[in-house]
Design a protein that fits this description.
Largest sheet: 2 strands, antiparallel
Number of strands: 6
Strand content: 15-25%
Shape: rod-shaped
Number of domains: 2
Number of helices: 2
Structural class: alpha+beta
Helix content: 40-55%
Length: about 160
């Protein structure tokens, strides 16, 4: 049996397989040399040199980044709107309360800052998330199990 794990190629002697409840013996006594699989064959189960778990970890980080971006954007929008409402309310008064003006101005400024931090986090997190999701799908597509024949008889090839 030939398989690839963590980018390393392995060849393990297989004696038999159990397929559909049938026992199929693979070991055939022969003095023929074992067929060597050429090194030029591409490594399956990997996408740009990394496996599914690598991209899944990056996907989860990007998803968290996107969530923080959404939270910062919504919080910043709420603070900015609240600050504008307080400032507009105080502007309509003949005698205004200075502490309300300070609170309104601080809410507005902090809201704008949070909004300007949140939007790029939201966008870049979403892009990273989508790219890593595509990479995870690419690694999944290349995983397979096949039964083939060689000069020595039948063989089971596992690719992951």
């Amino acid at each position: 049996m030939y398989f690839v794990k963590d980018g390393k190629r392995h060849i393990v002697e297989s004696i038999a397989i159990n397929k559909g409840g049938r026992y199929i013996e693979l070991k055939v006594e022969s003095h023929q040399p074992i067929e060597v699989i050429p090194e030029a064959e591409p490594v399956t189960g990997l996408y740009k040199g990394h496996d599914y778990n690598y991209y899944n970890e990056k996907y989860m980080k990007a998803n968290g980044q996107k969530r923080f971006g959404v939270i910062f954007t919504l919080l910043g929008t709420g603070l900015a709107v609240g600050g504008v409402v307080i400032l507009a309310n105080e502007a309509n008064k003949y005698v205004y309360n200075e502490s309300n003006v300070v609170v309104g101005a601080l809410m507005y400024v902090n809201g704008i800052i949070l909004f300007n931090i949140g939007v790029p986090l939201w966008i870049s997190g979403g892009i990273k998330r989508t790219n890593n999701q595509r990479a995870m799908e690419a690694t999944k597509r290349s995983m397979n199990l096949s039964l083939g024949t060689t000069n020595n008889g039948a063989g089971l090839i596992v690719r992951f």
